Amino acid sequence: MSRRKKHICVIGLGHFGWELATTLSRTCEVLAIDRDQELVNAIGDRVQRARALDTRDEGALAAVIPEEIDEAIVSMGENLEASILCTLYLKRLGVPLVRVKALTDDHAIVLHQVGADEVIFPERETARRVAAHVANPNLLDFVPIGGDYQVIESRLPSTFDGRTLSDIGLRRRFGVFVIAVRRQEPESVEFLPDADFRLRSGDVLVLIGREGDLARLHEEAR
Question: Where in the chain does DSSP place strands (E)?
């Protein structure tokens, strides 16, 4: 029995909304919406459905949102009135999860007040990721998980090659935990590796710890 695909509505086809809609369409049923008919025509063959309408019209929005919708993503941050009204209408229509792009902190506050489940600041997130990669070239990816804790993926520093986890003492010295090691040759993943697990060049460490502790580790391990 095939698994049901998620039904996602992406509203606003600027750069962020366009990339989001076309990427999600690979694994989800995507309805893309924008006021600009040309943008809707251009994306029409890259998503499952596309509609041109003014989302400030609650009736027009209600007519196209399917009952089986799982979530909506509103990417009209440059038009504060439209994004606020659209968020309000989507929640009135019973959309279970509404994520909304915001430009300012005040915009985010209003969006939360009208029902947004999550507010997104794409430019801030992109800037943080770029800054993290500039500061630490070994960093492959990171995910904030609350407070100042992060889960990160990092290439093995050359100073750790051939040493065991016990030898390098990440927990003792930095308060950082290794939750997995991804190995390329042969391709494998070692979850919660033992203290005697020996590292080698090409390994990718999956680490969890405080942002400051992780930064200190990478500074000393260069």
Answer: 7-11, 29-34, 49-52, 71-74, 97-101, 118-120, 139-146, 149-155, 177-183, 188-191, 204-210
